[in-house]
Amino acid sequence: MLLWTLWWVWMAAALGLAILEVLVPGFVFLGFALGALGVGLLLLLVDVLALAPLLLIFALLSLTAWLVMRRLFSLPKGQVKIIDRDINDD
Questions:
Q1: Are 62 and 31 in contact (CB under 8 A)?
Q2: Which of 2, 42, 84, 88 matches a 20 to 30 Å C-alpha distance to 63?
Q3: Where exactly are the transmembrane stretches of this chain (predicted)?
Q4: How far out from the chain centre does Cα 57 lie?
Q5: With contact defined as beta carbons under 8 Å apart, do 14 and 40 qualify?
Q6: What is the pLDDT of residue 90?
Q7: pLDDT exceeds cutoff 90 at 83
Q8: Which sign, positive or negative, has the C-alpha torsion 61, 49, 37, 1?
Q9: pLDDT > 70 fraction of the chain, expressed in percent and rounded
């Protein structure tokens, strides 16, 4: 059995990417983690897919997750976050 057809491999990849997101914040790896989670859940339902459709689904789910997070967590349009206090000034 090929590795990319196993649901737990995609779940492990999702967990690894989520942990990497904690280390490197900015919603960069979280979209990829959600995409891998979606593919893992899909493989639980559907028996086996070829690599190309799995990668396409992964890419589309990751892009969708990233766009949704960008819309939900970004500042309102036209606002700029200004930091005037340094945490090391105490």
A1: yes
A2: 2
A3: 7-34, 40-68
A4: 13
A5: yes
A6: 62
A7: no
A8: negative
A9: 97
